[in-house]
Write the structure tokens for this entry.
Amino acid sequence: MPDRLKSVSGKKVLITGAASGMGRAMALAAARAGAEVVLTDVNAEGLAETVLAIGAAGGKVLASQALDVSDYDAVTAFAEDVHDRHGSLDVVMNVAGVSVWGTVENLEHRHWRSMVDVNLMGPIHIIENFLPPMVAAGRGGALVNVSSAAGLLAFPWHAAYSASKFGLRGLSEVLRFDLERHGISVHLVVPGAVDTQLVRTVEIAGVDRDDPRIQRYFKQFQRHAVAPEKVAQTILRAIERNRFLVHTSFDVRFGYWWARKFAWPYEFAMRRANDGFNALYQRVRPES
């Protein structure tokens, strides 16, 4: 079995969602650490800005392409081009994601579909195109999947989002053991509050997010949010130390431990949180 990867320095690293937020922070951090990066994002303009920033800092971008990870054909064509030009990669990071919140009576089919297509099928498209060549190369490597605290805990209004993030968590837990024999470590990142554009623009089905009461909630959320640059450094350390479950803040680590150790109090707390969100919804929902 190949030696375990302990650093991204000198390695070829794919990062999705590299145009902004955690993806951009991860791309910059990996390049600073000596990685040769391969970048994608659906946002072409933001992706170009990331490429320029890496170049200005002396980093190396092997390839970049604007694409939607939910488009299997686009991912496959990109993977073929990357492999033809640069061979198999060493590290694959699935960072790209979208978010929609809402109760089941307000969520539309397009909401459910987008969560599964981007947050779950997107990483699957990346994995099925880039992991088999890594296995065949026999050099080992690492796979990083960014799930969420909503992939561990039952947050109110998160049914569609959690469906995708719990799915990515399950996929990662299986691959953790499937890929071990090939020297490929798997790392499941479960961020809580992170100060990114995703948080600032999240759609809440059936609710006007510009309502001052909703804005107060988001401002409170952002006060506790972690900078994406800190998350990127946490991920790099997790690779170095071979940690599977990667917490980016203490509150999520504690909450997950508490949910596993104290099932009844956890259920009580989740019901109270759900009641609180429902009361908020009753106050801010549009008049019929």
Remarks:
- The chain has a mean pLDDT of 90.
- The first helix runs from residue 21 to 32.
